[in-house]
Amino acid sequence: MKINERPLLFVIGQILNPLVAVETLILIAQYYGFPFEGQLFILALFAFLVVAKLLDSVDLTSSLKAFWAHTVGAIFLRWFVVVVVMALIGYFSKIVGESSRELLINWFIITPFMIVLAQLAARYVLDRVSISGENLNSAVIVSVNDLSLRLAARFAEHPVYGVNCLGFFDDRESNRLHVDTGMPVEKLLGKLCKVADFVKKHQVNQVYIAAPMTDQPRIMFLLDELRDTTVSIYFVPDVFLYDLIQANISAIQEIPIVAVCETPFAGVNGFVKRISDVVLSVLILILISPLLLLISLGVKLDSSGPVIFKQRRYGLDGGEIVVYKFRSMTVSENGDLVTQAVRNDLRITALGAFLRKTSLDELPQFVNVLQGRMSIVGPRPHAVVHNELYRKQIKGYMIRHKVKPGITGWAQVNGCRGETELLEKMEARIDFDLDYLRNWSLPFDFYIILKTICVIIKDRNAY
Fold first, then answer.
1. Other CB atoms within 10 Å distance of the CB of residue 200
2. pLDDT in tens, 195-240
3. pLDDT digits (tens, 9 = 90+) for 158-171
C-alpha cells in the first residue's frame, strides 16, 4: 500500500485497463458495423473480467522513466496472456464466429497501445488536477538535506499525492542552511524541539523524518514528543535500498519512505472500511427501526428529559465530534466535569439500567456511522474531559485516534467495558485499541461484531 494512495487513485487504477479494453472493442465493433449486443456483449463482459484479473493495476504515481522502462513492457506481455485466454474462451464457447474474427484481430492489436495512451493521459490529468486546500494533507519535513529537498519538490510537482509541505525543521540556522542547501529561508519553521508544538497548533497530518539514522537520540526524542498527537510519521531513509524481499516500504517517485506510525485505513483500506460501515449501518438501521421507536417511547415515558443524549467526544485525528446515545441517566453531563457511571449509580434510570446492560443505548450511534463521524468497529470514544486527563497519564494514548471511534471495539469484547476507576484498567483498554490498529482486517472487524453479540448476552461489567 502506498502511503499516499487515495481512494480515487485506487478506483482509477483498478478499472482503467478493463474499461479501455472494452471501450476499444465497442469502437471497433461500431467501425465494422457489428451491433453491441448478444454474443459481442457477452464477449465484452468476459474481456472486462479477464483484463481486470490479468493486467496489473495501474500505478499512477511512479516516475515516467519507470513507466517506459517497466510498465509498458508489462502491459504488452500481459496483454498477450489476455489474448490467449480470450481466444480459448471464444473457441470453446463458440462466441466468436467467422464474421467477427477480423474485428477481434484488430482489437487484439490496437488495445495495448490504447491502454498505454490511456495511462499516459491519466498521469497528465492527475498531475495537473487542481486539489483544493481542504483536501490536502499538511506535512512538515524534519532535517534539511538533499533527500528532504527532493521530497518536498516531488510533493510540489505532483499534486496527485495530495500533500502540502509547510516547511522544514532543523537545528541549524536558516542562513547557513540557505547557503549549504539553497533552501529558502522562510521555509525553516524552527528547531526540532518545536515540531510537536507546531503539529498540534497547526493540525499537521504528516511528519517526514529525513534526519540521518545516526542521529538516534534526537529522533527518539522527536518520536516520544509526537506520541501525544495523531500525526502520521514516516522515515525517509538516507540510503537507497535495493533487492528488497517482501519489504513493506513505499516510495515517492524514487525516494523510499518507511511508515513508522500510520493509520491502517490509508488508501484503499479506508475505502473498504467506509463502504462496509455504510452498507452494514443501513441494513441494521432498517432492521432495528421498530426497536428504535419502542426504546424512544420508553425513554420518554420513563423519565423527563430528551430521548437522545448528545455528548462531545474525540474522533478521528483528535477532532471533536458529537456522539448520540439513548438517554439512560437523569443528568446530561457534557461539560468540563463528566463523572463515569459506577455500579448502582443513582443517576441511572430504571429503563436506562437495562439499556446500558444490553448496550441498546448505543444504537443511535449507527446514525453517527452514516454521518462519517464513527465506525461500527473501532476504539470506543471517551468524553473530551477524560481524553485530556488520560493523554497526560498514558503514553501513546492519542494514537488510538488515528482511526474513527467505534460502536464496539477489540477492547470491549475482551472485557474492558464499564468503569475505569483504576489507571491500569484504562491502560489495558488502550493496549487492546493499539493492538486493533496493528492487526486490522475486514474479517477481524466481523469477528469483533460477532463476539460483541456474545459479550452483550453475558457481560457483567456494563452498568
1. 16
2. 999 999 999 999 999 887 667 788 888 988 998 888 888 888 764 4
3. 777 778 999 999 98
Nearby residues of 126 by Cβ (< 8 Å), 6 or more positions away: 9, 12, 60, 159, 160
CB atoms within 10 A of CB 301: 8
CB 258 within 8 A of CB 237: yes
Supply angle C-alpha 236, 240, 242, rounded to 5.
125
Gap between the Cα atoms of 80 and 86, Å rounded: 10
CA-to-CA distance for 315 and 233, rounded, in angstroms? 19
DSSP 8-state symbol, 172: S
Longest dimension (CA), the chain: 84
287-293 long-range contacts, CB within 8 A, separation 24+ = 288/363, 288/366, 291/360, 291/363, 292/363, 292/364
Distance CA 218, CA 234 (A): 15
Distance CA(389)–CA(460), nearest Å, equals 26
**Cell numbers that stand for 125 in this block:** 490529468
- Which three three-digit cell numbers place residue 210? 529525513
Q: What residues contact residue 193 under an 8 Å CB cut-off, 6+ apart?
A: 221, 225
Domain ranges of the chain: 7-128, 133-261, 268-458
Tell me the pLDDT tens digit for each residue of 102-139.
888 899 999 999 999 998 888 877 766 645 445 678 99
What is the rounded (10 degree) CA torsion for 116, 118, 124, 127? Answer: -100
pLDDT digits 0-9 by tens, 311-351: 888 899 888 899 999 988 876 555 555 555 555 566 788 88
| Range list of H helices, 208-259 | 216-226
- Provide the angle, in degrees to the nearest 10, between the axes of the packed helices 7-32 and 101-128: 150
Nearest to 138 by CA among 160, 162, 164, 156: 164
Closest among 358, 13, 403 to 232, alpha carbons compared: 403
Q: How far apart are CA 149 and CA 156, in angstroms?
A: 11
Do 67 and 74 form a contact (C-beta atoms < 8 A)?
no
Q: Please give the class, per CATH, of domain 133-261.
A: alpha beta
AA identity, residue 385? V
* Three-state DSSP state, 23: helix
Distance CA 193, CA 226 (A): 11
Question: Do 310 and 322 meet the contact criterion of CB atoms below 8 Å apart?
Answer: yes
The answer to whether residues 151 and 255 touch, using CB atoms and an 8 Å cutoff, is yes
Answer whether 20's CB lies under 8 Å from 79's CB: no
Residue 433, classified by CB atoms within 10 Å of its CB into exposed (0-12), middle (13-18) or buried (19+), is: buried
Paired strand residues for 257: 250
